[in-house]
Amino acid sequence: MAERYPPAGLAEDRAAYESRDSFVAEHRPWSPAQLVAVILGIVFLILGGIAIARTGVDFNQLTSKHIDVAGSTQTQLTGYLELVFGAFLLVVGPIPGAGRGGMSLLGVLALVFGIVVVAQPSSFYHSLGIGKGYAVFLIVAGAVLMVTAMVSPIYWGFSRREGARQRGSAGRHYNPVA
After folding, report:
1. In what helix (H) or strand (E) does residue 82 lie, and over which residues does it extend?
2. 9-18: per-residue pLDDT in tens?
């Protein structure tokens, strides 16, 4: 792409303009909520991966084999659900502003599902292999996601600074343009 001359707001002749090196520094926005979403996404991916590794991949027996993962009983179906949940968290985690809605939604899903399992654990033991202990983990993870998405600030760092360095025998000097 050809460089546009003259740049906006710069009244110089072409030779003076071409004798400069210009640069732009950009700082991307970020939020501490991103770190929480990514860490929880990795935790769920690891739990799901361990569950699937221990149960094996057999779509005819998604709920029949119960195994122990991190102190909780799980099935192959639970492992798949954890993988999907962790992948969604990793998708919305790196987005500082737009990821808040996704984090809140996933947090609400985890919180509500955890509360339902705590209220009626026997309904989920056969198909998912989970009980009250795993449900409490879901409630805590959901609450952390929701609170972090609501409270965590976004540090908007889009600060552009353009400058120019004069070419010459005396060395390089910084002269701000903008």
Report:
1. helix 76-92
2. 555 555 555 5
